[in-house]
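Exam revision sheet. Question 4 asks you to relate a sequence to its structure. Input first:
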Amino acid sequence: MSIKKISKVRVRRAPEAARDNILAAAENLLVERGPLALKLADVATASGVANASVIHHFGSIDGLHAALMERMVAQLIADVLAIADQGGEREDQQEAVFHALFDVFEKRGASRLAAWLELTGEWRRMTHIRDAVRDVVMKRASFGDVTPQQAEDLVLISVAMAMGVGLFGHSLAELMGKPEDRTRALATEVLRIFHAARRAQ
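Answer key, structure tokens:
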């Protein structure tokens, strides 16, 4: 009785679907194990493709890191714009935006990836983010209660706070004997006050 060797069949995807598959696998690795797990071999294995396929789509592992950050920011911005388009009470919209922002940077690992990109100098690759953030600024300013400059300030402080919470919010709270969500709650409270102050100017 002979034993037939079963070869693993690779699934051939369209270029955009292949990129999305690799980025989705990379994001899962980021959440589970942090940015140090975003190595060429690990990402290729997790996405079920050859190392060469990752290089083909992103040019290098650094290119993959930048593309993943852009993907996460693009999704966040899409979510924020969708919240704004839903209408409703301004305070409810604001709370929904805060929730989406902190979830991306804290729970999905965007803060750790952003810090990694900053430390390696690869943040310069993310030129698309500038235009995407501008869309959020203009949308926020269109409400009429803040100027474009004030809207930029709101985006800057909101992202900076979310980054800080995502990087060491849990650790700092634990060191001080506080519940792990305490830092996020305080940061959200600070943002509410800051947003209210900007609107009152």
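Marking note for examiners. The domain at 12-59 is CATH 1.10.10.60 (Arc Repressor Mutant, subunit A).
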